[in-house]
Write a structure and sequence with these properties.
Layout (H helix, E strand, L loop, with lengths): L1 E5 L21 H17 L2 E5 L16 E3 L3 E4 L11 H8 L4 E4 L11 E4 L2 E6 L5 H11 L5 E6 L6 H4 E5 L2 E4 L13 E4 L11 E3 L2 E5 L3 H9 L4 E4 L2 H4 L10 E4 L1
Parallel strand pairs: 1-2, 4-5, 7-8, 10-11, 13-14
Antiparallel strand pairs: 1-15, 3-4, 6-7, 9-10, 12-13
Length: 254
Amino acid sequence: MLIAMIREVSPLIAQCELTHLERQPIDVEKARLQHAAYAACLARLGCEVQCLPATPDLPDGVFVEDIALVLDEVAMIARPGAASRRPEIPSVAQALEPYRKLLTIEEPGTLDGGDVLRLGRKLMVGLSERSNPAGVEQLHRLVEPFGYRVEGIPVSGCLHLKSAVTQVAENTLLLNPEWIISDWFRAMKIIPVHPAEPYAGNALLLNGTVIYPDAFPATGERLESAGIHLEWVDVSELAKAEGAVTCCSLIFEA
């Protein structure tokens, strides 16, 4: 059974952490409707959707992916680089405890789940403003016994590694070459984002379909031309909070 853990949009989402975007008004009700449609999409694609306890006082709580990394054998409880997000940790850890043994990233390490791209038994980790070398080293030490390799790679111009690159097919990545050097992924086929759509690199591959924001039609056309089936979603309000389709869920096999 495939589980998708989500959390509803906080009424304070407009007070979210921002790193690369200027603050804009966010329509909370519209964001909630978009999030509900996203959750329905997860369900259509085969997930049992589980909603975590609401955290109305935590503006970024909807972006649950940053709080954990769920592998086949264990769940890694992250230590977000933004201190304001660390109160999100206990409820996510409690929800994951029935499914996995929990391991944790400790101070001085920082790690956001949005910086981790899993490619088989290899974990590519973005060295971003949210994830530091100490966090990458801890992750390496904790997952090596389970046969995973960890490689830290520099990220610039965007919030997380998965802002710049995500997997869209078995051997194919969607990538913004302005934000991440494609040489890190020489074994993979690369589809570059359309130059006019720099934020188009985040896509969620789920059961052979890619959940993809409808804000990026030119890049979407490139994906469809490559034979990739897209499920289009509107996440425009969440995007104002530097959110994307991967960061709104934690997906794993129960």
